[in-house]
């Protein structure tokens, strides 16, 4: 049954890839990639159980960390078109609170 | 008393693999439901809500299932770490994406969408 | 000092939980990385209430089960919305005012809103929040007052919840 769960997650990942390809805006794609990363974490854990080697969970932890950082990095890059600006400075309604 | 405890432990040992894999399957189906929502919903902001099903309930149920099947306490600790990471980072990532879209001027659809009325008015 | 001890305890628990080995070499490596992390945290000046929020752990532990219950309830609504044959949703934008005072409590409140499916915090500015909800009737400002009160009590303590 764990293998069935793994196959279901892979099905969900394929659907998300379609959304990543056809997503009308950039943010749809970022959202799909972020959700894809969460599913990858879960699929890595389930793969460890299916293969009888739960050590795969270390890779899953690492992926969970990298997924978050990559989402923020993509958003920051497409906001400023550069990595050279500080994250706390924002134009718009938020104002420089810090 | 210890006899009852031993019986309970034996019952738990017997039931934890089927229960764990069933929970994994349920969580995976929840993930697929969230993905179907991401495919179906008409607008970026509403897709966000569907994606958060995967991040919260799907991930939680799958991790609980894997913890039931875990061979040792070390694995449970790692699963708890993954749960904690997802629990802290997924709302932050969702908020970052939505806030970036809102700051960039993407307008959400407001009002009832569906068979009853199709009044899509621009948002404030 | 309390923040220092809290961070130390959390880091030791994290290392033991991740490695699970007790050989002298691995424990020594753990001590080295722990000292490095503490020096970095001290130099970055993040050993404050937000960097080491272990003082409010009991309040948060009381808040967590209620939040989980809310998440399960909201999940059910969104799952039904995903699986309906005809799409029937009423997305809306709501403006809220929170009673949370500290930044940590505001973050807890906004994260709780984002964690419950069906509502996402779009923007937070001072004590005003902009929330996008999937159903207009479920995301009126009154629906969030209990979550607001509970997160304020969990993080700011009893005095703030009045």
From TrEMBL, chain A:
Belongs to the CPA3 antiporters (TC 2.A.63) subunit F family. Keywords: Cell membrane, Membrane, Transmembrane, Transmembrane helix, Transport. This is MnhF/PhaF family monovalent cation/proton antiporter. One of its GO terms (cellular component) is plasma membrane. InterPro entries: MrpF/PhaF-like. It is found in: Cell membrane. The chain crosses the membrane at residues 30-49, 56-78. It is a multi-pass membrane protein. One of its GO terms (molecular function) is sodium:proton antiporter activity.
From TrEMBL, chain B:
Keywords: Membrane, Transmembrane, Transmembrane helix. Pfam families: PhaG_MnhG_YufB. One of its GO terms (molecular function) is sodium:proton antiporter activity. InterPro entries: PhaG_MnhG_YufB (IPR005133). The chain crosses the membrane at residues 20-39, 60-87. This is MnhG/PhaG family monovalent cation/proton antiporter. It comes from Hyphomonas oceanitis SCH89.
